[in-house]
Amino acid sequence: MQVTNVTAPDGLTLAVQEWGNPRGAEILFIHGYNQSYLSWLRQFGDAALADFRVITFDLRGHGASDKPTDAKYYSHARWGDDIAAVMKATGLRRPVLVGWSYGGNVICDYLRDYGAGSIAGINFVSAATKFEQRFLGPGRDHQPDMFSPDLATQITGTRGFLRACFQRQPSVDDFEIMLAFNMVVPPPVRKAMMSRPRNPGDMLAPLRCPTLVTHGIDDRVLLVGLGEFTAATVPGARLSLYEGAGHAPFWEDAPRFNRELAEFTRTANAPAR
Questions:
Q1: Cα–Cα distance measured from residue 51 to residue 46, given in angstroms and rounded to the nearest whole number
Q2: Residue 9 CB partners (closer than 8 Å, separation 6+)
C-alpha cells in the first residue's frame, strides 16, 4: 500500500491510500459516518479485487485526515470537492465510486457539482441517497450520545452505534480496531456532519451511469427500503440484497461483495457496443 496526502481546495489535508494493480480498472472507496479507510480491511488484498487499482481515503474529520470542528468545513460542497481533489491528485481517469452509508451523501454531493462524466459507475452500499424518516433505522438512536462532551457517554454511544452497524457481529479483535478508529472522530465533527442540509435525493433519477445498489436486508441504520428506493429510482440500476446482513454487507459477506464489485467494475469499464 502507498500512502500519501492530498490537499483539498479549502486547504485541508486528506489521508489517501493506494493498493492493487496500478494499471487496472479503478475503484475509489468512500467510507461512512465516523469510520475510516480501515473499514475496507476485508477488501484489501482479496484475490477478487487484486487486478484493480484501488484508492481509499479518510474523509475530512476522520482517521488521519484533518479534523477542523467548525461546521462550515462540512457543508455539502466540501465533500464533492474532496472527491474531485482525490481523483485529480491520484490521476484517476474513470473510477467506479463505492460509497458506504454517509458515503452515499458524498457521492451525491460530487454528482451535484461535477456530474457523472468522469466516473465509470457507482456502487451505493447501504447508502444515504435521500433523507426521509421512513428510511431511518433504530441504530441511529445512539448518535446523540456520540455528540456528548462527556467521554464516557461518547464511548457508550459509539459502541452502541457500531454494534448496530452489524447483524453478523465482528470478532472481539475486529471490534476493538473499529471502536478505536471511530473514537478518533471528535464529537463536534460528528454533530456538524449531521447538521448539513438533508439530501433531497435529486441526484438519483437523472443519473446515467452503471449503478449497483448493495444493501443488507437486516440493516438497522438505514433500512432496506432505502436501497430498494435507490435502485427503483436510478435508471437501469441493479439491486443486490444480502440476507442476514446488516449495515455493513461488504464486511459481513466480504467474499460475495468483492466478487460482485469486481464483476460490476469490469462491466462498467467494458467498451460500449
A1: 10
A2: 81, 85
Tell me the backbone φ, ψ of residue 80, rounded to 5 degrees. Answer: -60, -40
Residues ≥6 apart with Cβ < 8 Å to 184? 36, 62, 63
Express as a percent the part of the chain with pLDDT over 90. 96
pLDDT higher than threshold 80 for residue 272 = no
Kindly give, in sequence order, each residue whose CB lies less than 8 Å from that of residue 119, ignoring residues fewer than 6 positions away. Answer: 94, 95, 96, 97, 209
Is 251 a domain residue?
yes
- The CATH number linked to 45 is 3.40.50.1820
- Report if residue 181 sits inside a domain: no
| Tens digits of residue pLDDT in 159-170 | 999 999 999 999
Please tell me the distance from the alpha carbon of residue 110 to that of residue 114, in angstroms, as a whole number.
6
Enclosing domain of residue 16: 2-137+187-268
- Predicted local confidence at residue 196, as pLDDT: 87
Sequence length of the chain is 273
- Give a yes or no: residue 146 inside a domain: no
Residue 39: the pLDDT is 98
Number of structural domains (the chain) is: 1
At residue 78 the predicted structure's pLDDT band, cuts being 50, 70 and 90, is very high
> Nearest to residue 224, comparing CAs of 125, 84, 112, 90?
125
Note whether residue 82 is domain-resident. Answer: yes
